[in-house]
Amino acid sequence: MLVSAEEENREKVRQSYLANPSFVWEKAHQNNHPWAGENEWAVRSFHLFQAATLIRLLIPYQKWFPAPVLHCDLGTGDGIWKREIQALFPGVVTSLGVDFAPSAEGVDILEDITSSDFSLASPMFHLVTAINCLRHIVEDSALEQALVNIHRMLRPGGFFIFSWGGAQPKKTPIWYKLRDWTDWYEKVKGAGFSGFSTHIFDAPDTFTMTRPTHLTLCRKPEQSTGSD
Question: What is the pTM of this model?
Answer without folding.
Answer: 0.77
